[in-house]
Amino acid sequence: MSHRNIVVAFGGVSPEHEVSVLSAMQAMSSLEDTDYTIIPLYISKSGRWLTGPPLLDLENYQDLDALVNRATACTFAHNDLGKPVLQETEKKGLFRSPQQHPIHAVIPAFHGSEGENGAFQGTCEMYNIAYAGSRVLASSLGMDKVKAKELCRAHNLPVVDEFDFYEREWVKDRQSVLHYAEKISYPVMVKPVSLGSSIGVAKAEDEQALTEAVETAFRYDNNLMIEQAVTPLMEINCSVLGTPEKMQTSVCERPLGQEETLSFEDKYQSDGGGPKGMASADRVIPADISDELAGHIQSLSRNIFTIFRASGVARLDFLVNADTKEVYFNEINTIPGSFSFYLWEENGMNMRELMLTLIEIALQQHKLKIGRIRSYDTNLLSEKAVKGIKGLKGTKQPSE
């Protein structure tokens, strides 16, 4: 049933490339025995758009160069009827012509960079494709830690003190940055502004540690944030599913790590590098916190989901002072690792049901969009032509 093709898009030019592959594999595997036909859209580390059956097998990703050579280049396009398709752009095989795959909906499974920051979502909007997850605005805001905190602060939601700076500022006047960090008071957290999965994140207890952390973080992002560390720290996460008009919250979780602050290894390699993504991380579900604190965090999660105008599934991460139980917003993940399915299992929803729900929300959101007037019939250009507007007329034309 070609009109029921679900494109799962993943990979991308991002330090979180491999994590994205794991989330996509979980999504595609969960939809295997449904009425949908699953089509992979893999964006390589060099930015190439690829599709084809080899991309459905996780073992093939052990050799990315060989996999890229076996896959088929593709792009979004419109067919003769103006419908969006995934268009193969090269011929694979002697007797096989490039194919067009009509798109029912897209499930973005990217983490970080252009796949999660609204750029890919904007591409879907341009091609009028239904897609799961948050729209462009929420995606871009969620990826920018500074703007996300500014939005929460504007709505009187609790956040810790922070400041951000660019690499040019660090090179030009390092002492000013160190001075601001001193004013916030140590310990502080150093974070790339537009990355996730704890990549480049470090805790600094003094100026020397801060300098080393900043130099490391600039390998991943041109814009860094230094924020006051919450200590003793307890991280609590909660997932939200739905739209700003109708949503539900999952139970809370308390992630566990070898250090107070979770690392990339804690999140994704705690089982020795298995294919489970975020589901492999150590955590307490439901979180071992009071019902009152859990309810407060769930309420904050719904509020933040709404003000960001998020949709689909998101995970809200909070910093909690383990002694005072004060709660601070940390970040919103508009495409959470493994789609946070492990939190929804506690609500009686398995991975397949979660993915089907995301597809349904995507189709409903798209229906609302295309149900509005999207063009305006007018003879404005004819009127302007009659009145005379100086344009290209009379300009020098290219020689033939």
Structural summary, described in words:
The structure is a single chain. With 400 residues, this protein is of the alpha+beta class. It has three domains: 2-131, Rossmann fold; 142-158 and 231-367, 2-Layer Sandwich (D-amino Acid Aminotransferase, Chain A, domain 1), CATH 3.30.470.20; 162-228, Dna Ligase, domain 1, CATH 3.30.1490.20. The protein is built from 14 helices and 16 strands. It has helices at 17-30, 64-70, 113-116, 119-126, 136-143, 145-154, 167-172, 174-184, 207-217, 264-268, 291-307, 341-344, 351-370, 380-387; strands at 5-11, 37-43, 49-51, 72-78, 84-88, 100-102, 105-108, 162-166, 188-192, 202-204, 223-228, 233-242, 247-255, 283-284, 312-321, 327-333. Strands 6-5-4-3-2-1-7 form a seven-stranded mixed β-sheet, with helices on both faces. The protein has a five-stranded antiparallel β-sheet with strand order 14-13-12-15-16. Helix 1 links the parallel strand 1 and strand 2. It is globular. The N and C termini lie far apart (49 Å). 40% of the residues are buried.
